[in-house]
Amino acid sequence: MVQSVVIIGAVMAAVLVLIGIVLTKAAGKAKYLPYYPAMVIFGTGIILVTIPTVIGKVTIMGAGLGGWGIAFLFASAIGFIITSIVDSFQGATA
């Protein structure tokens, strides 16, 4: 189960980083646009972590909903960090 959560988190982090970098380059005047995908994934992670307390254990692709939530929270944190670093360097060179 731990391996599934780590793989899901790594894949989601890679996807969020790519989306964040693309949106940073395309944002223009919209300063917060690159951060919206990570915010959505963060909210989804919080929801997925709290759902098993209400409905019980549900397993999807080897990981429970709580594991999916933890993976989404991990991906969101990594996505926020790398997107903010790319955004800060984008502003420094402009």
Describe this structure in words.
It is a single chain. The chain has 94 residues and is mainly alpha-helical. The protein has one domain (2-93). It has 4 helices and 2 strands, in the order αααββα. The protein has helices at 2-26, 36-50, 52-55, 65-93, and strands at 59-60, 63-64. It has a two-stranded antiparallel ribbon. The chain is elongated and about 50 Å long. The model has no long low-confidence stretch (mean pLDDT 88).
Measured on Cα atoms, how large is the radius of gyration? Answer: 15 Å
Beta strand count: 2
Number of helices, counting only DSSP H or I runs of 4 residues or more: 4
Profile the largest sheet. 2 strands, antiparallel
The parts where pLDDT drops under 50 for at least 5 residues are none
Percent in strands = under 5%
Distance between the termini: 45 Å
Number of domains: 1
| Global geometry | elongated
Helix content: over 70%
Q: Note the quaternary state here.
A: single chain
Helices and strands, in order, run as: HHHEEH
Widest sheet: strand order? 1-2
Average pLDDT, rounded to a whole number, is: 88
Q: SS-based structural class? A: mainly alpha
Keywords: Membrane, Transmembrane, Transmembrane helix
